[in-house]
Amino acid sequence: MRHDFRMSEMDLGGGAAPTLRGHFLQNEPMKKHVTWRAGGLAQRVYIPADLDDLTWLVRSVPAHEEIHMLGLGSNLLVRDGGVSGVVILLHGVLKKLALESRTQGMPPAPTGRDTALIYAQAGIASPKLARFAANNNLVGGEFWAGIPGTVGGAIAMNAGCYGGETWDKLVQVLTLDRKGQLNERLPGDYVIGYRHVALKQAHEEWFVGGWFRLEHGDGAASRETIKTLLKTRIASQPLNLPNAGSVFRNPPGDHAARLIESCGLKGFRIGDAQVSDKHANFIVNLGNARAADIER
Hints:
This protein has helices spanning 51-60, 126-135, 151-157, 219-236, 256-262, 291-295; strands at 3-6, 23-29, 41-47, 67-70, 83-89, 97-100, 115-121, 138-139, 160-161, 164-165, 170-177, 182-185, 190-193, 196-199, 205-216, 269-270, 273-275, 283-285. The protein starts with a strand and ends with a helix. It is of the alpha+beta class. The chain folds into three domains: 3-89, 2-Layer Sandwich (Uridine Diphospho-n-acetylenolpyruvylglucosamine Reductase, domain 2); 97-222, Uridine Diphospho-n-acetylenolpyruvylglucosamine Reductase, domain 3 (2-Layer Sandwich), CATH 3.30.465.10; 240-295, Uridine Diphospho-n-acetylenolpyruvylglucosamine Reductase, domain 1 (Alpha-Beta Complex), CATH 3.90.78.10.
């Protein structure tokens, strides 16, 4: 059964509950929140009001209880048994997107380059960031238009496509730790690779925002590039069916889709989960796929 109630009426930690302004959903079907449209129930889902509310929520969750941050759920498979702990939805909540005028505490701009900073919170859809940059005559972020997720997810996995990667443009990130404290970190604090980001000194932290440095350029040309990239996506990817984007990382010097197709698996199906007959590195949900079907 689903329950919808104000978290300020609950006490997660056994003491006085903070004044929270978001709301919780109990036993929420996660298939509503992931792009595969499959998976079990979440014990609790919290939708914060804003970043400040999110920090209070994190402080309120008992240390033994798991916290899962979720954007658009576009790179996530939730198993049929569901998710324990608290799932926190960030898309549509952490939505600040603006040119950054602050210079104090920011890494200096490269000498001889005409650049500007964009601050984007984790809940912003990556394509929106691409359009915002182009509309402000900033170039180099067009590839974000091809990433079907949020800025938070793009930062967390160094998402990229069409020759661009997220951390190539990042100069600083804002994280939230398990104590509910906000931290500004530099790329040097992380080990960064192909679809991989990890703190050099491990802590339980989540990305809640990032500062991106882009060069000034021809915004109209950038918008045309975005249109071309989107046409390429539509023509080559099964966007008409629930999917989670590319499933497997490309090995050095090759493409996962080519390898899968060479094994004769294009169109292979288990239940309603199918290796796409349009792009072999996509697994699509034909209607009622279980997470177990996708995982197998």
